[in-house]
Design a protein that fits this description.
147 residues, alpha/beta, four-stranded parallel β-sheet, globular
C-alpha cells in the first residue's frame, strides 16, 4: 500500500482494449493532468467499439486515446502504482511499479448475447471501475473531478 498520493499510475489488463483504457480515462477525468496515467496489456488488442460506446455515454471520448499498447511498449517506464485488472496482467507488472494493486475485473468481451446484453456487461465494468477509482484515490489523498 502506498502512503502518499501517486504521481504516476499504470492500469494493466490482458489486451489493453477495454478494462485498462476505461480505467485510465476515468482516472484522467478525476485527477487531471498532474498525474501521469497510462494503460497497457500483456498483449495488444484492437480498439473495442463497445468500450468506446459506454464511455461516450458518460462524455468521455475513448476513441481519442492512444491505440492499445503492450508492456514492451512501456520500455523502462516506472510508476508509483500499477493496478492490474486481470490475472494475466498481475503476473507481469511487478517490474513497473513501487506498489502493485490487483482489482479483479470481469472481461466484458467474454459475455455472449445480443447487443444490449453485451453493452450492459461493458457498462458494469465501467461502473465498477469508476467506483473503485473513486474509493482508492479518495483514500490516498487525491481529490478530483466527478468520476
Amino acid at each position: 500500500m502506498i502512503h502518499r498520493p501517486p504521481t504516476s499510475v499504470l492500469f494493466a489488463c490482458t489486451t489493453n482494449a477495454v478494462r485498462s483504457p476505461i480505467a485510465a480515462a476515468l482516472l484522467r477525468l478525476r485527477l487531471g493532468p498532474d498525474v501521469r496515467i497510462a494503460s497497457a496489456g500483456v498483449g495488444r488488442g484492437e480498439p473495442d467499439p463497445f468500450a468506446v460506446a459506454v464511455m461516450a455515454e458518460i462524455g468521455i471520448d475513448l476513441a481519442q486515446d492512444e491505440r492499445p499498447k503492450t508492456f514492451e511498449d512501456l520500455g523502462a517506464a516506472r510508476f508509483d502504482v500499477v493496478i492490474a485488472l486481470s490475472r494475466e496482467a498481475r503476473r507481469r507488472v511487478g517490474k513497473f511499479a513501487v506498489a502493485v494493486e490487483y482489482w479483479p475485473t470481469p472481461d466484458a468481451t467474454q459475455v455472449d448475447g445480443n447487443r444490449e446484453q453485451r453493452i450492459a456487461a461493458y457498462r458494469e465494468v465501467r461502473d465498477m471501475l469508476r467506483r473503485r477509482i473513486r474509493e482508492y484515490f479518495t483514500d490516498h489523498g487525491q481529490e478530483g473531478g466527478p468520476t
